[in-house]
Specification:
Number of helices: 9
Helix content: 25-40%
Radius of gyration: 18 Å
Number of domains: 1
Strand order of the largest sheet: 1-7-4-9-3-2
CATH class: Mainly Beta
CATH architecture: Sandwich
CATH topology: Jelly Rolls
Amino acid sequence: MSETYQQNGYCVFKGFLKDNELLELREVLLEFHESWKRKNSEFYASNAINSAYITGTEHLNTTQRKQIFNFVGSSKLMDVATSLMNRRPTFMNTQLFFDPFNKEQNNYWHRDLQYHLTAEEQEAALSETEVLHFRVPMFDEPGVELVPGSHQRWDTNEELNVRLEKNGKKKHNNLSTGLSVELNAGDLLVFSANMIHRGLYGLDRLSLDILFCDPDPSLLQWVSDDCLPNKKIMASLENADAFKSTIELLPSIKKVSLD
């Protein structure tokens, strides 16, 4: 799988979660989603397609948060992260992806890094830092459309025009280089945040995303202390290394206490 990922920028692990593991996660994520929608009703009704900071204390209790931490810090998930990443996997965040409230809302092609870097900086970053999405759908869904190999190369003229809406193109226009990856509940899709991609809406999608990155402080500026496990939870995890990496790097960014 490592070779497949390096070449294409993504790989799929079918049936990654057992039925009981999937049901436990789904129950917690549905609780989170309903709470988040109540507290963000205006944003949800306008154009939201995802929420974040699932492991924080605002929407889930300690037991529910620990269920998410247990999955992120499980040996089988961390084994995949370690095998695919060139450097030490470092925890960034969790997200929940869902269908927009407005069924007519278009999806859109993007690279994650385009929201905080210029086009020139984006191109340079492709060979500098790595961020990976680990996506597990709670229900069968259309999945994600990806441009294979685009995590290691710059856009073609067609891709750049669509992604940045140049020369009359729109970011929801189809790309000749796109490849749809359909997902079933419990599958694991790993893909590079640097690659050109877009979510595919429909079937009431509800997908958990875990973001791992290189151990680079510049990538951790949006990490929330509230979303990290305390020492007791850390000690109970099968593999807490990604959390440890984040916690070790945070003092170089901000003062943090996780006692």
